[in-house]
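Task 17 of the worksheet. Students: predict the tertiary structure of the chain below and write it out as structure tokens. Keep your answer in the requested format; marks are given for formatting as well as content.
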Amino acid sequence: MARRSTPDLLTIASAVYARLRADVLAGTLAPGQKLRIEGLCRRYAAGNSPVREALNRLSSEGLIERREQRGFYVVDTSAEDLAELVRTRCWLESIALRESMARATEPWHERLVLALHRMSRTPRSTSPDAYEENPEWEAVHRSFHRTLISQCASARLVRYCEDLADQAYRYRQLSMQRAYLTRDVKGEHEALVRAVLDGDADGAVELLVRHYRRTAELVGDADAFAQDAAPLATPAR
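Model answer:
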């Protein structure tokens, strides 16, 4: 049997990493779940080395936890972690949104309106009767939020916000069954775009922060979250 070349092994490792990461974020691999190497090798049709490399990469990203003498586990969820995540996301995206609005251009406004239009025309659920994740909606939703802060002129800041959005997606999946029928997400996004187009930076930031906090409230106990979360300071310009 021919030995695989290094590029082939790197391609396999990258594919395993991408699939494992997607399964963790989507909750297919549940928070706190032990990840056995043999089972992952079967699941992703890969050898031991690519699987271990993927686990180590995800461990460095904070999605997988390596416990001494016990193996790998999906990082657990908690009210404290969610509170920290939402606070940090609100802080960073508030700055990115203010900077984007300060540098606003007509092409950026047009891209934002187009992103909203695409999202509004894409069904959030693949089922009309209950929530079933629609990957197409998730893609246009992520594109909308990326577009919202893309004018801030800091690739690093946008990248940090993207990493936090991945973490938030994992928590958001926990709330979807409750949120789907009780929350007007379309209206929240439309109000946010109106504030941006009107040049109302304070109003836009307030709506964005409220949007993210609402998700946190639906994931867990809103009162407990309010006690855990420190007040958000409005970033000064």
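Marker's comment: The radius of gyration is 20 Å. The longest strand covers residues 64-67.
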